[in-house]
Sequence to fold (98 residues):
Amino acid sequence: MTESLMGIWPLLLMVPLFYFLILRPQQKRAKDHQLMITNLKRGDMIELSSGIIGKVVRVEDKEVGVEVAQGVTVKVVKGLIAVVRTKGEPAPANDAKS
Fold:
């Protein structure tokens, strides 16, 4: 009986170790990424997970309009935004697009 319990102890010790080394940091990264996406606004320079860099020109519920070249705007799913490089100045919603 005691030998079988001694064989289980290493497994029981690995569970908290697994949580603190793998799961918890991943949850923190996901929370930070979600916060970054919710704070996204017009004028921000972003980098997509594919490596494309552009400027946010329109923010919708699940998608953003990204200007990748002058006059070229693409729709991108918010989850594919990897990094917000520079924060833009807040712009009024009713101004003319530049």
